[in-house]
Write a structure and sequence with these properties.
- This protein is an all-alpha fold and 183 residues long.
- The protein contains nine helices and no strands.
Length: 183
């Protein structure tokens, strides 16, 4: 059996970038520093990534894969959507240090663009919507609310944040019905 070390190498590089971001601004980090911290050569870095930003996208993809592995179904009803919102928030809370590093390095646009692409993909895969702007509404809401929540060090209870997102997405009537069912 042959072991593919590419995933290990990418993970080492990803961890190195995040560790270096704790020490200094992302824009001041060189590829040489990343390679050295990861224990690889510059050529190995470039064999796996085109840029430092690509390393962060790789990390975002890993977080989304982890989130998706926890999801066992496609949301069909309000209860499912609420659970999905909670899962997203728990994932953001678990990765709040990374998000705080993104904010500190003024890379929020990279994260917003990533979320936009993810929501566009989700809506395309589901054959929705007729309104092409709707995915941007959802990604923008998730982005803005969670960025503010993480800036506040996730002090607001997760259920209150989920309530805000659910109300914005589905309205007060659906939220009241959801709460009644949950009692």
């Amino acid at each position: 059996m042959r072991i593919d070390y590419t995933d290990f190498t990418k993970q080492y590089i990803s961890e190195a970038v995040l560790q270096l971001m704790e020490e200094k601004d992302f824009h001041e980090i060189s590829i040489t520093e990343i390679a050295k911290k990861a224990g690889v050569g510059r050529a190995t870095f470039y064999r796996n990534f085109n840029s430092k930003e690509d390393v962060l996208i790789y990390h975002f993809n890993n977080v989304v894969e982890e989130l998706n592995s926890q999801t066992r179904f496609i949301p069909r009803c309000d209860d499912d959507y609420y659970d999905t919102i909670l899962s997203i928030l728990r994932t953001m809370e678990k990765n709040k240090n990374m998000v705080q590093l993104i904010i500190k390095s003024h890379l929020e646009t990279l994260l917003l663009n990533y979320l936009n692409e993810q929501y566009l993909s989700v809506f395309e895969d589901a054959g929705k919507p007729n309104n092409t702007l709707l995915p941007y509404f959802y990604s923008g809401a998730i982005y803005n609310i969670t960025i503010q929540w993480v800036k506040d060090d996730c002090t607001e209870p997760i259920e209150k944040v989920a309530e805000t997102l659910f109300l914005a997405s589905f309205g007060e009537k659906n939220y009241k019905e959801l709460i009644e069912r949950m009692k």
